[in-house]
Structures are given as structure tokens and as C-alpha cells.
């Protein structure tokens, strides 16, 4: 029989608290300043429309993209990973809607 003993130190507990505190701060850091609604559109349109809208925005702006295409989760992530000047801040998967938060990082 193998017995595992978990030992919590003050440092471990403080680190955990810091991580939780940090998550709250991160979520507050990306308030979207523009919204793009591509619900009902399928690949490749969510990415095409996202790129067009990002090109119109100033650096630092966070674009919230609302989509119904499940493929948009990987499509927008892949586009952001391979595109200079944009950063995928977060993605949320709801029941029938997929929300993406994309920051324009440079002009």
C-alpha cells in the first residue's frame, strides 16, 4: 500500500492565494472595447471578419467576437498565433455561443 501525505506550507498557501488573486486581476484587465457579431457565419468568415475589424481598430483595443461556429475556437486561436500585431486574450465556450477576446497589440 502506498500512502501520500500532502504537506502545506505557508509559502504554498500564499502562492495559491496569489494565483487566485491574479486570475481576478487578469479578467478585469480585458474589458472589451468593441464587439463583432459573427453568429450564424461559418468558416472562414469568423476569422475573415475578425481580421477586417481588428485592422480598423487602434492598438490596445480588445475586440469581443461572438460566434456560433464551434470551429471558430481553433480557427481564431490559430489565426492569432500566426498573426503579428494580435493577441488572443481569452476564449469562452457557452451553450450555443463561442466568445473570443482579441487584443490588437500594434498599429
UniProtKB/TrEMBL annotation:
What sections of the protein cross the membrane?
none
User: Which parts of the sequence belong to the UPF0033 domain?
Assistant: 36-60
Q: Which GO terms describe its molecular function?
A: transferase activity
**Is Transferase included in the keywords of this UniProt record?**
yes
Matches recorded under Pfam families: TusA
Which UniProt keywords are listed? Transferase
Mind telling me which InterPro entries this protein's record contains?
TusA-like, TusA-like_sf
PROSITE patterns per the UniProt record, alphabetical: UPF0033
User: Which Gene3D superfamilies does its entry note?
Assistant: TusA-like domain
Q: Does the keyword RNA-binding apply?
A: no
Q: Which domain of life is it from?
A: Archaea
Q: What family does the entry list?
A: Belongs to the sulfur carrier protein TusA family.
Q: What is this protein called?
A: TusA-related sulfurtransferase
Q: Which organism is it from?
A: Haloplanus vescus
Amino acid at each position: 500500500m502506498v500512502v501520500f501525505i500532502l504537506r502545506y506550507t505557508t509559502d504554498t498557501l500564499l502562492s495559491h492565494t496569489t494565483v487566485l488573486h491574479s486570475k481576478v486581476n487578469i479578467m478585469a484587465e480585458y474589458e472589451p472595447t468593441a464587439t463583432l457579431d459573427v453568429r450564424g457565419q461559418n468558416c472562414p468568415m469568423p476569422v475573415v471578419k475578425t481580421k477586417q475589424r481588428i485592422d480598423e481598430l487602434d492598438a490596445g483595443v480588445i475586440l469581443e467576437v461572438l460566434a456560433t461556429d464551434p470551429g471558430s475556437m481553433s480557427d481564431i486561436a490559430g489565426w492569432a498565433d500566426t498573426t503579428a500585431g494580435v493577441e488572443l486574450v481569452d476564449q469562452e465556450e457557452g451553450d450555443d455561443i463561442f466568445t473570443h477576446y482579441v487584443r490588437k497589440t500594434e498599429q
